[in-house]
Amino acid sequence: MRSATPPELAGKAKVELRKENFIPAREWVLTSSLFIVFIGFTLLVRFPFFFWPLSVDEGSYAYTAYWWFHGTQLYSDKLWFDRPQAIFLAFQAGMTLLGESTWAIRCWGALWSAATACVLFMLARRLTNQHAAICASILYTLFSAAPHVEGFTANAEIFMLLPATLAAYLIYIRQPLSAGFFVSMALLLKPSGIGACTFCVLWLFIDRASWRAWFAFLGASAILPIASIVHAALTSGLQAYLDAIVWYRLGVNVATGYQPENSPLAGWLITAPVWAPLVIVALTGLKSLSNRQRTFALLWFTTSVLGVAVGGHWIMHYFQQIIPPLTFFAGVGLSTVLKSTHPFRRGLDLTIIGLILSVFLTVEGPLFFAKPSAGMWQLYQRTGYTVATPAAEYIRSHSAPGDTIYVAFYEADIYHLAQRHSSSIYLFRLDLLYLLMPITVLSSRCSCANPSTYWI
Fold first, then answer.
1. Burial of 97 by CB count in 10 Å (0-12 exposed, 13-18 middle, 19+ buried)?
2. What is the per-residue pLDDT for 125?
């Protein structure tokens, strides 16, 4: 019999690859059913928080998206934000589909988180097995909603994690073109998406990717940033765009000597009830991973920590970025224990895991059942959140839609709730502290925007 030629071997390899990627109809049904479970559980866990007061970040994103899509030019002296357009597009999509209310914004964020749980399942299944993937996704839907990482909010991290996790999955299965596209989406949704970019680049090195893979990844990753720059250049102007998203932030750090809102230690300690139990459970599954799997997951976690650090202020919601890799590790650990063939050892391990998870439930659990105003106060200790809704209702009933308001100096959520335009482009207290702007200068800038300005 004639020996196989190289083309024949290549043909056989393609057939084997098709067989590996082929998913039987039964598997599709099971996967779809699990996705429905993940989505349902995500909405169920977050439902109590749909009625909590809107946070300042959610309000500022919704406010900017609303006025941008109502004709006010972004990156102008009427509407300004130090972020690319992506997060505002994401918010506007949700407000168009579900509405502009607080519960609608929270529900939209929950749906993105549910999609992340589904992608995490796909990645964990490819890395390990279906049982570990189910454990990982269920843990993610619960821990990612924790109040002490602000998982119930629709912060930018919630949106960024979907394309970031999808990029991790795609880079692992060697689809660099798609991975490049989604990792750039993560970066445009939140600057700390640079952690996901770093992860993909490092994994391409570790995986010894070909020059074609590098070309596909880098080429695809440039598409969305170029589109963002071109849009800004054609509307507000390239200089205004760069001033907002690049030079402003760099200038702030130089001018102030970089003074974070929280210290790194404070950030890790505040969020410890969420990440610490996952770390301990994760340790039980490290041995069951191969070197390649362990390297991939540890790199994923390490670059996620980089994303947290890039945020600069060590705020609670920054730590959302470490939840996907940690729940992957914890899912593997939990699956390993559940599959143990030694009843006594399995029972002991499950008892220990139960005690560890009880820490999470003890700290976070009461907030899931707290009354909205009381829970918000317990978590943030901010009076503004408790009065924002009635204040916004008062403003709407005592002002005209064309009037402007200024909230001194912090609660940007009131702008969205009141549906009134800010008379200053600066929505945050930190902007004013960084700029060191005298109140007289701010007042003159506000009054020139609209003579009918209400101060709150």
1. exposed
2. 96
